[in-house]
Amino acid sequence: MSQNCCAPVDSNQKEAHLNEESCCTPVWVDKDQKLTTAQTNLCPTCGQKGKKVDSLTLKAMLDVSLLAVREVAYLFCRTADCPVVYFAADGLQVFTKDQIRVPVHQKEPDNDHVPVCYCFCHSPATIRAELLATGRSTAIEEIEARIKAGQCACDIRNPQGNCCLGNVSAVVKQFIAAIQVPA
Ligand SMILES: [Zn+2]
User: Fold this and answer.
1) Enclosing domain of residue 34
2) Distance CA 56, CA 67 (A)
3) 25 has a pLDDT exceeding 60
4) pTM for the predicted model, two decimal places
Protein backbone atom coordinates (compact mmCIF):
# COMPACT_ATOMS: atom_id res chain seq x y z
CA MET A 1 0.00 0.00 0.00
CA SER A 2 2.74 2.44 0.86
CA GLN A 3 4.79 1.76 -2.22
CA ASN A 4 2.54 3.76 -4.49
CA CYS A 5 1.21 6.43 -2.21
CA CYS A 6 3.70 8.98 -3.49
CA ALA A 7 3.17 8.15 -7.14
CA PRO A 8 1.40 11.07 -8.76
CA VAL A 9 -0.08 8.88 -11.46
CA ASP A 10 -3.78 9.17 -10.75
CA SER A 11 -3.94 12.89 -10.43
CA ASN A 12 -1.59 13.67 -13.27
CA GLN A 13 -3.39 11.38 -15.63
CA LYS A 14 -6.66 12.92 -14.65
CA GLU A 15 -5.40 16.42 -15.29
CA ALA A 16 -3.09 15.78 -18.20
CA HIS A 17 -5.65 15.94 -20.96
CA LEU A 18 -6.82 19.31 -19.75
CA ASN A 19 -3.52 20.98 -20.28
CA GLU A 20 -1.44 19.02 -22.70
CA GLU A 21 -0.42 22.04 -24.68
CA SER A 22 0.32 24.32 -21.79
CA CYS A 23 2.17 21.96 -19.47
CA CYS A 24 5.46 23.79 -19.96
CA THR A 25 4.02 27.24 -20.27
CA PRO A 26 3.68 29.39 -17.20
CA VAL A 27 0.42 31.22 -16.93
CA TRP A 28 0.74 34.95 -16.99
CA VAL A 29 -2.19 36.65 -15.46
CA ASP A 30 -1.83 39.76 -17.55
CA LYS A 31 1.12 40.02 -19.90
CA ASP A 32 0.59 43.69 -20.56
CA GLN A 33 0.21 44.79 -17.02
CA LYS A 34 3.27 46.53 -15.64
CA LEU A 35 5.06 44.86 -12.79
CA THR A 36 4.02 46.38 -9.57
CA THR A 37 5.65 46.22 -6.18
CA ALA A 38 2.27 45.99 -4.52
CA GLN A 39 2.11 42.57 -2.88
CA THR A 40 -1.32 41.64 -1.72
CA ASN A 41 -0.53 38.00 -0.92
CA LEU A 42 -3.97 37.21 -2.30
CA CYS A 43 -4.41 34.47 -4.88
CA PRO A 44 -5.37 36.16 -8.17
CA THR A 45 -7.81 33.35 -8.93
CA CYS A 46 -9.68 32.67 -5.68
CA GLY A 47 -8.85 35.82 -3.72
CA GLN A 48 -7.75 33.92 -0.62
CA LYS A 49 -4.57 34.71 1.24
CA GLY A 50 -1.59 32.57 0.29
CA LYS A 51 1.31 31.34 2.36
CA LYS A 52 4.85 32.26 1.34
CA VAL A 53 6.97 29.40 0.07
CA ASP A 54 10.72 29.21 -0.26
CA SER A 55 11.97 29.45 -3.83
CA LEU A 56 13.58 26.03 -3.31
CA THR A 57 10.14 24.53 -2.73
CA LEU A 58 8.78 26.19 -5.85
CA LYS A 59 11.72 25.02 -7.98
CA ALA A 60 11.50 21.48 -6.64
CA MET A 61 7.78 21.27 -7.30
CA LEU A 62 7.41 22.87 -10.71
CA ASP A 63 6.93 20.64 -13.71
CA VAL A 64 7.73 23.50 -16.07
CA SER A 65 11.02 25.10 -17.04
CA LEU A 66 12.50 27.02 -14.13
CA LEU A 67 13.09 29.88 -16.57
CA ALA A 68 9.54 30.80 -15.60
CA VAL A 69 10.60 31.55 -12.04
CA ARG A 70 11.15 35.24 -11.45
CA GLU A 71 12.86 37.10 -8.64
CA VAL A 72 9.69 37.74 -6.73
CA ALA A 73 8.12 36.06 -3.73
CA TYR A 74 5.78 33.17 -4.41
CA LEU A 75 2.90 31.98 -2.30
CA PHE A 76 1.01 28.73 -1.91
CA CYS A 77 -2.78 28.73 -2.34
CA ARG A 78 -4.52 26.11 -0.21
CA THR A 79 -8.07 26.68 -1.47
CA ALA A 80 -9.40 23.25 -2.45
CA ASP A 81 -11.46 24.31 -5.45
CA CYS A 82 -8.89 26.77 -6.81
CA PRO A 83 -6.59 25.32 -9.51
CA VAL A 84 -3.73 27.63 -8.54
CA VAL A 85 -1.00 26.07 -6.41
CA TYR A 86 1.58 28.87 -6.48
CA PHE A 87 1.24 32.51 -7.42
CA ALA A 88 3.64 35.41 -7.59
CA ALA A 89 3.23 37.94 -4.81
CA ASP A 90 2.78 40.65 -7.41
CA GLY A 91 -0.27 38.78 -8.65
CA LEU A 92 1.00 38.57 -12.23
CA GLN A 93 1.77 34.88 -12.50
CA VAL A 94 0.24 31.64 -11.36
CA PHE A 95 1.21 27.98 -11.52
CA THR A 96 -1.74 25.63 -11.56
CA LYS A 97 -1.89 22.07 -10.24
CA ASP A 98 -1.25 20.54 -13.67
CA GLN A 99 2.13 22.33 -13.62
CA ILE A 100 3.22 20.74 -10.35
CA ARG A 101 5.16 17.48 -10.19
CA VAL A 102 2.99 15.86 -7.54
CA PRO A 103 -0.70 15.90 -6.68
CA VAL A 104 -1.41 18.43 -3.95
CA HIS A 105 -3.28 17.32 -0.82
CA GLN A 106 -5.00 20.65 -0.30
CA LYS A 107 -6.36 20.60 -3.84
CA GLU A 108 -7.68 17.06 -3.62
CA PRO A 109 -8.65 16.57 0.01
CA ASP A 110 -11.09 13.81 -0.91
CA ASN A 111 -8.65 11.79 -3.00
CA ASP A 112 -7.57 8.92 -0.79
CA HIS A 113 -4.33 8.35 -2.63
CA VAL A 114 -2.93 11.87 -2.72
CA PRO A 115 -0.27 11.94 0.00
CA VAL A 116 -0.80 13.91 3.17
CA CYS A 117 2.76 13.25 4.33
CA TYR A 118 5.09 13.52 1.35
CA CYS A 119 8.22 12.41 3.17
CA PHE A 120 6.97 9.12 4.61
CA CYS A 121 4.10 8.43 2.27
CA HIS A 122 1.04 8.62 4.46
CA SER A 123 -2.17 9.14 2.54
CA PRO A 124 -5.80 9.22 3.63
CA ALA A 125 -5.96 5.62 2.38
CA THR A 126 -3.08 4.40 4.55
CA ILE A 127 -4.33 6.33 7.58
CA ARG A 128 -7.86 4.98 7.22
CA ALA A 129 -6.60 1.42 6.69
CA GLU A 130 -4.57 1.53 9.88
CA LEU A 131 -7.48 3.02 11.82
CA LEU A 132 -9.82 0.32 10.61
CA ALA A 133 -7.30 -2.43 11.29
CA THR A 134 -6.02 -1.36 14.68
CA GLY A 135 -8.37 1.33 15.95
CA ARG A 136 -5.62 3.93 16.12
CA SER A 137 -3.23 5.91 13.94
CA THR A 138 0.49 5.87 14.52
CA ALA A 139 1.16 8.27 11.65
CA ILE A 140 1.81 11.34 13.78
CA GLU A 141 4.14 9.67 16.26
CA GLU A 142 5.99 8.00 13.40
CA ILE A 143 6.42 11.29 11.55
CA GLU A 144 7.54 13.06 14.72
CA ALA A 145 10.13 10.37 15.36
CA ARG A 146 11.45 10.59 11.82
CA ILE A 147 11.62 14.38 11.99
CA LYS A 148 13.74 14.06 15.13
CA ALA A 149 15.94 11.57 13.30
CA GLY A 150 16.49 14.11 10.54
CA GLN A 151 14.77 12.01 7.89
CA CYS A 152 12.22 14.53 6.61
CA ALA A 153 12.56 16.91 3.67
CA CYS A 154 9.30 18.84 3.72
CA ASP A 155 10.81 21.84 1.95
CA ILE A 156 11.41 19.90 -1.23
CA ARG A 157 8.82 17.11 -1.00
CA ASN A 158 5.68 18.75 0.35
CA PRO A 159 4.10 21.28 -2.05
CA GLN A 160 3.21 23.53 0.88
CA GLY A 161 6.90 23.67 1.69
CA ASN A 162 6.72 22.81 5.34
CA CYS A 163 5.77 20.15 7.83
CA CYS A 164 2.70 18.05 7.14
CA LEU A 165 1.83 17.29 10.77
CA GLY A 166 -1.12 19.71 10.89
CA ASN A 167 -2.64 18.16 7.78
CA VAL A 168 -2.05 14.61 8.98
CA SER A 169 -3.61 15.43 12.32
CA ALA A 170 -6.67 16.89 10.58
CA VAL A 171 -7.10 13.78 8.43
CA VAL A 172 -6.74 11.46 11.44
CA LYS A 173 -9.32 13.46 13.42
CA GLN A 174 -11.71 13.55 10.48
CA PHE A 175 -11.51 9.78 10.03
CA ILE A 176 -11.84 9.06 13.73
CA ALA A 177 -15.02 11.15 13.75
CA ALA A 178 -16.34 9.50 10.58
CA ILE A 179 -15.42 5.93 11.45
CA GLN A 180 -16.30 6.46 15.10
CA VAL A 181 -13.20 4.78 16.36
CA PRO A 182 -13.25 4.92 20.14
CA ALA A 183 -10.79 7.62 21.22
ZN1 LIG B 1 -6.31 30.27 -5.15
Assistant:
1) 9-99
2) 14
3) no
4) 0.78
